[in-house]
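Weekly puzzle thread! Below is a chain. First person to post its structure in token form gets bragging rights.
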Amino acid sequence: MDDRDIIKLYLARDEEAIAETQRKYGRYCHYVALRITGSEQDAEELVNDACLRAWNTIPPHDPESLKAYVGMLTRRLAVNRLEENTAAKRSGHAAAPLEELSECLPDNAEGNLPESVALRDSLDRFVKALSRRDRRVFLQRYWYACPVAEVAADCGMTVSHVTVVLLRLRKKLKAHLEKEGFSP
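Winning reply:
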């Protein structure tokens, strides 16, 4: 079943949409959640939560890409879970990438829907403008929360080279966002 067919099930309020979403994108969402939370149990729970969130948000949303949509929902839920777990334990392996980006991103975009949509669109433009290598490094570190050593091994680079690339990318991102009217 393709994405459009699954989205039509959501729009028709057919509960089979959830099962089809889990069948098609459950492993992907599990990977996203596991990379961020580091917990198999949390990842399984977050996949279910993301599918429920998709059920509750389609309609009114009608996403172009179901994979991107449920991936985004999963990632948001995983980051929230990580923040909860980190607050409880005061540690967390995926907190570092989020802290790295905090110097670039505006503080107040989350609470203001138009501003958060504009920020998302600006980030999309930034990522799309990157070279293939830089995009891969950026997404692995900041979307999937991979450790720098893992990014380096996957990209055939040294850890120090990846660290320098990430530093440069954060500087580029900060300049890009400031140029588009966002200030950290």
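Puzzle host: Confirmed. Bonus trivia for everyone else. The chain has two domains: 3-89, 95-179.
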